[in-house]
Amino acid sequence: MTLFLIAIGAFIATLLGGSFALYFKDKLHLVLGFSAGAVIGVALFDLLPEAIELVGENRGVSFTTALVGLGFVIYMILDRLILFHNHSEEHDCHNPKHQHGNGVLGAASLVIHSFIDGAAIGLAFQVSTAVGVIVAVAVLVHDFSDGINTVGMIMRSGGSRKKAFSWLLMGAIAPVVGIISTLFFSVSGGTLGIILAIFGGFFLYIGASDLLPESHHEHPVFATTIMTVLGIAVLYGAIYIAGV
After folding, report:
1. Non-local CB neighbours of 164 within 8 Å, separated by 6+ positions
2. What is the distance of C-alpha 90 from the center of its chain?
3. Domain range for residue 208?
4. 8 Å CB contact between 227 and 214
């Protein structure tokens, strides 16, 4: 029953965040600025510490940070080579085809991350109810930002409201599926830590190399910078409160 309520809460929190971003789509540069900070905050204050705790205890912190670097490089290769990222005038970074592919790749990463969040909740409850509740609170407090980030990536890439909502719906369902999936399997803490570290690298690239520059493009730098700092601060505060 507890897991069921948490799953519903994750679904609603993600939908609310995405709906907020859709409603304020005319202020997309501010939403993107906040999203950039939120994504970077998730990587630095949530994924990296959890990965270090799960992996670093046995293999060392340097191994964990190397995995973060690997995730960053993997995403950069996907972005620049497979999606044919090019800064030339003929095929610049604002090319609609590149933007579409980049936005979908970013949104897909967030959906997978949300699935892992759900799985983390379920696996935590396998350890104990107390640990499960702590992990669940940590996930729920940033699901709202996950919804904003997912919509922001699709809208930034020129996607329609319908497409953005479709990805938002997938992002909202993903943690529910993740929770349910743990009824049928279990993984070691070390394996989960490796996954979290690699996704930390993904999110650092998305936030710093994609969302942040795009939020400043042809918009007031001061306002978007404030929103980025706010996004980082909100995620830090939420994760800190969840861990108390």
Report:
1. 18, 21, 22, 150, 151, 154, 155
2. 31
3. 2-243
4. no
